[in-house]
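2024-03-11 09:14:02 INFO worker-7 job=invfold-0412 stage=load source=structure_tokens
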């Protein structure tokens, strides 16, 4: 009985524990249900929105399976485009930094941006097209809600409009333009920092300054400029790049020229009465033009080639043409044109010849620097200037005789003094036939007659001058007959004129035949210190030099003519006295050293008498070639221009 009771008790205890456990579980479940209530309420509230989200693609399972492949094919390109967009934004920090910190790196990042934008430009349209196709498929197969499809169409339409309107700006948000602006600033900064005006000691020393050009930009700077030009050109900004280059470099050339004080280039024809009033400026003009061409524009020509050579000949030549025009070459040419338009007078002829000489000296440089098609404005202005100079100089020269003849009708000075025109023209003709102006005037006259299809005769220039002198003498004769006071003072003028002839004859002798005696030096021969053979060699050498100089001088002057007999005889006598005694003495003392030599005739080429006869026969008139003058003969004019 006791055993049964214990067993029952144990069962009851077990049942009690089980019930208690069940109650605890119920309590926990109740608590859990209590907590789940708000969550269920939240789910219940979200169900309408979930239903709305699912509604656009509410369709049969088979239809949804069929459209899946189409959606995947459309989304893949769009996803690739979005990835590239993300990459573009990743470049923003680098491209908005200062290019100077790392120009090669900056250019590399910029190129990556260009490639990314090219990809987007090539693929955005494709991605939009595929998305439009899938929307059309959804609409045709009634797979999606109409409102949903309408919103999709509107979004795709906006994308299409953005693609067609300012595509690049929309694709990168203006990042590329901002980066290119920074490159332009760096391009300008590099040029400005390395463009230094050419230093000069003083404008007055311009003629003595050696031919130098500004130091070219450092190689490293040129390489940086070329790299920047490459990227700007690839993005259609070459013109802006050229504009910056021309602005900076032309400003640098102008700064170099400022030290020359070129204000005179702006003088207008109304600001001066005649050429004499600006004669000094014309002399400076030639030096300044040569300096600008050979020192400044030459350097700019080379630098344009170095910087823009990869772009092409037309580009860098056009760039140089703009620099030359803006830096001042046109002002130089316009000044010359202004001189040609001034009032005509004899002095103007000399100044026109000076201008022609300066331009002719720079002819090869002008053709090389400004010969391209881009320099057509400079070419035209230069051509017009040369034409005006040649025509103006020729016109004045051929009118000189007419002007002298017109003076014959005027009365001579009442005080009997020599008319100013006579003194002026005498000196003027000497200058025209001098070594400085005669070659230039001859060239001008040759060109002018070629333009008129007329042949230029060698004697034309000298004959024209002789005719002027003849007309002056005729004027003197006319005036002397009508004015006793002038006749008496005319004697004084003739006396002074004779003194001038003596003076110029002496100068002529000194500069020509007077140099020959020094060739027969006796140095090293007095004591025969080196032996007879050495003395013979010295004599041979000096006689050979003398013979060559004599032959050259005689050949040159044997065709010269001095029309006035007294002056001719006196000049020949001076030459004989200067050369023959020295030659005679030398041959008497040292001739025997070479007379026994097999080649003696090569060194003892002339006897003393032969030499004297040759010199005494110089400057004889040649009636067959020269016209005779009426009245007095010209007052001692050498046909080569010596007075």
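2024-03-11 09:14:09 INFO worker-7 stage=emit residues=643
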């Amino acid at each position: 009985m006791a055993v049964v009771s214990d067993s029952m008790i144990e069962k009851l205890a077990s049942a009690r524990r089980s019930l208690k456990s069940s109650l605890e579980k119920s309590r926990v479940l109740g608590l859990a249900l209590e907590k789940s209530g708000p969550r269920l309420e939240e789910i219940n509230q979200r169900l309408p929105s979930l239903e709305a989200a699912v509604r656009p693609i509410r369709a049969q399972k088979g239809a949804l399976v069929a459209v899946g492949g189409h959606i995947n094919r459309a989304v893949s390109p769009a996803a690739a485009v979005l990835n590239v967009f993300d990459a573009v934004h990743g470049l923003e920090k680098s491209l908005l930094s200062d290019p100077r910190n790392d120009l090669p790196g900056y250019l590399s990042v910029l190129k990556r941006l260009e490639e990314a934008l090219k990809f987007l430009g090539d693929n955005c349209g494709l991605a939009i097209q595929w998305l439009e196709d899938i929307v059309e498929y959804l609409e045709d197969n009634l797979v999606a809600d109409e409102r949903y499809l309408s919103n999709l169409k509107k979004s795709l339409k906006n994308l299409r409009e953005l693609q067609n309107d300012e595509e690049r700006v929309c694709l990168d948000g203006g990042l590329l333009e901002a980066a290119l602006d920074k490159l332009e600033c760096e391009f300008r900064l590099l040029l400005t920092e390395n463009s230094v005006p050419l230093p000069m000691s003083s404008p007055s020393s311009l003629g003595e300054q050696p031919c130098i050009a500004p130091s070219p930009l450092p190689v490293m700077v040129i390489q940086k400029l070329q790299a920047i030009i490459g990227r700007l050109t690839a993005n259609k900004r070459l013109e802006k790049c050229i504009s910056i280059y021309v602005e900076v470099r032309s400003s640098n050339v102008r700064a170099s020229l400022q030290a020359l004080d070129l204000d005179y280039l702006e003088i207008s024809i109304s600001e001066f009465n005649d050429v004499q009033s600006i004669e000094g400026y014309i002399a400076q003009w030639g030096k300044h033009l040569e300096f600008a061409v050979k020192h400044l524009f030459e350097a700019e020509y080379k630098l344009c080639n170095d910087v823009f050579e990869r772009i092409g000949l037309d580009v860098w030549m056009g760039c140089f043409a703009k620099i030359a025009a803006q830096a001042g070459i046109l002002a130089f040419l316009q000044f010359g044109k202004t001189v040609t338009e001034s009032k005509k007078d004899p002095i103007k002829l000399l100044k026109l010849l000076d201008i022609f000489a300066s331009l002719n000296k720079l002819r090869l440089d002008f053709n090389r620097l400004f010969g391209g098609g881009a320099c057509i404005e400079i070419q035209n202005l230069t051509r017009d200037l040369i034409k005006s100079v040649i025509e103006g100089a020729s016109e004045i020269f051929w009118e000189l005789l007419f002007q002298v003849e017109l003076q014959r009708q005027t009365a001579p000075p009442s005080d009997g003094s020599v008319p100013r025109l006579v003194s002026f023209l005498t000196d003027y003709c000497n200058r025209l036939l001098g070594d400085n102006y005669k070659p230039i005037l001859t060239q001008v006259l040759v060109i002018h007659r070629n333009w008129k299809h007329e042949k230029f005769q060698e004697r034309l220039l000298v004959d024209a001058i002789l005719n002027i002198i003849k007309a002056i003498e005729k004027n003197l004769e006319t005036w002397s007959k009508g004015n006793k006071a002038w006749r008496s003072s005319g004697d004084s003028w003739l006396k002074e004129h004779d003194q001038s002839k003596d003076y110029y004859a002496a100068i002529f002798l000194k500069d020509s035949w007077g140099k020959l005696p020094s060739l027969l030096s006796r140095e090293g021969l007095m004591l025969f210190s080196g032996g007879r053979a050495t003395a013979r060699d010295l004599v041979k050498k000096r006689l050979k030099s003398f013979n060559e100089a004599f032959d050259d001088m005689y050949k040159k002057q044997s065709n010269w003519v001095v029309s006035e007999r007294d002056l001719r005889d006196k000049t020949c006598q001076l030459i004989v006295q200067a050369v023959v005694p020295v030659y005679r003495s030398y041959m008497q003392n040292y001739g025997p050293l070479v007379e026994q030599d097999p080649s003696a005739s090569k060194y003892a080429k002339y006897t003393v008498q032969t030499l004297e006869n040759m010199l005494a026969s110089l400057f004889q008139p040649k009636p067959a070639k020269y016209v005779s003058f009426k009245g007095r003969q010209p007052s001692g004019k050498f046909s080569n221009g010596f007075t």
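2024-03-11 09:14:09 INFO worker-7 stage=report msg="Confidence is low (pLDDT under 50) at residues 201-205, 207-213, 624-643."
2024-03-11 09:14:10 INFO worker-7 job finished
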